[in-house]
Amino acid sequence: MAAEAYVVPYSVGGNSSLAGRSKVPKQRVKRQNNNPSDFSWVQRWAAVGDSYTAGIGSGKPLGNPILDEPENTNWYCSRYDTSWPMIVNDALGPSVDEFHFLGCSGDRTGGIYQQILKLPTNLDLVMLTAGGNDLCLAKLIEKCVLVPSGDNSCDSVIAVAQANLETILKGNMMQLMSALDAKMKDDGVVIYNGYAQFFNTESESCANQAWTYATLWPGNSGLTIARRNIFNDFVVQINNIIREVVEETAANTNYNWKIGFSNWDPWVYNGVQGQMCDPDGTGNYPDPEQPDLQFFKPDTHVTEHDIDLRRREEEEMKDPVAAARRAAWAEIERRNLETELYSSVLFNSPHPGAEVRHKLDRRAPSPPGCPGDKPNVDIQPPSIGLPDWVGKNFHPNELGHYTIASFALQTLVDTRAAVLDLTPPSCAIQDKFTCWQGDGSRAYASAARLNEDYQDFCTHVRRTSGPNGWSFSRVYHEGTPDETLFRISVAPPSTNYDRNECLAKMSRIINGCDGNDPNNPMNWKFGGEWVHGDYTYTVSPRKHKRRWPVPREPGGACEGWWKVFYGEYDLYGYGWASHDWGQQTLLKEARSCVGGGVTEWKFEYFDQADANGMEWKATFRTPIWVRQRCFNNNKVQFGAGGFTGGCRGND
Known about the structure:
Number of domains: 3
CATH class of the largest domain: Alpha Beta
Structural class: alpha/beta
């Protein structure tokens, strides 16, 4: 049997082809077929699919570029030793006699169809990830993120990807199920793994990061929330179609095997902070501020060079001649891309679905084309067209593959229970209360603010429904030291929302975590999380670089200088005016004391406390000779809830 079609678990990861290796005798284990958690029934199994199955970039590459065969080998397909199939194979244990690892980076359903045809029959288990490449995801990532050349090009690929998703994807997947039927043992199991949403969409913080490897002109709009939502929506739609395919396959009485859908998507945003563009992320990779990131990503933190480049780009954008030239190039790029896209077999056919079914027939298996395909070639090479160090971006990293493997194995237990006509094992309702301060967090916020905010949050929760559960979040006092995220997440099958329960849970998180601490007399709140069954309530202050230790009393510094016709003031503070940009605290009191006439008002929050522990600075002008009666005696500061110990100067 060819190297790509037969792998024994003891030899995967070597530096040479595995063809011709003899199987190593293994000690048999006692079979307990009435226990769905016992995997000893799995003797012959396979993993097929795309780059998510191959594990591009996760761990070390399998195979050897010199000794491997020229096509469909470990090296050529970018298979890696910390991919989820390798992790699953280790977990299945010594009962496995044959492990067929055929997943290949870049393969669409046509290529995966060919992988299935290469499998032997009478398999106990098959796991797969398939469908994403039918949406031309590699071209989406290229045109919309890594090498953007203008919004029109990105939008053109998005339009075709959406059309593919709506017209052909489900039919392609059903063809894979039909092909698997000839390979499965009676009472065997198929596990179809889903995909996960790449991006957090809570803030625009990562839109200005350096995501592009190259660009043909400046002015790229970056990874805005709107664009991130498009990528995430594709993932949700793919997973919904996978779910439909699994349900229809399970209902097909002609199939004598069982199938399960392994959906790891909710874990990435509800279980951990696993998405790119998380507000706590810095743009670095790896990122110590976001240790649970589940995907490979470029290092996108902004350097001084990036800032200088953007400054020059902004200057170039002001040149009308250059702007016209860029617009002309953008239109040429858009037309060329659309010509490339719409010349595919799909868009030349008056009946795309029928064309796909024909192309996926055993006599001529092939999905429709994507931009960049080789002309007149039905099955494209199984490479994503980029070196692995680039191509691995937007794919699960090592941690992501352990997550996929964990969910796949749990789904395997549940599906095996269905084979045995047993109730799947279940865990007791989870009730876990976590205080972020106990986990070492240094982000905190005002008790008065949070106790006001949670009531507003619980009142305005908007419940949605969907196969992946639902969540609602809101950020309060964004950009200030009191910036705080409130979130409720509900996992399926639960859908209901109880406002009174939300109020009770949020109040307990805020006031039950941080109270009666003699080292915290100002009662700062660190927040926390309460997981109760399918419901997760979260309160997370987000400014981790505030003054530390927490202030025991408000403080600051003040200077007021006579400038002949006006007084000029610099006022710094910490522990007060921490949410309102000084508007309802400092400015209000200054105007009240001065009697009007506060001008040139500027208020700035620092990204982190300065060397003196100050968190903000206010500058303003007043009529002359007000320092003694308003600022040096701390009248304004006391009225605003703060203190500066006087105000030096000569006004």
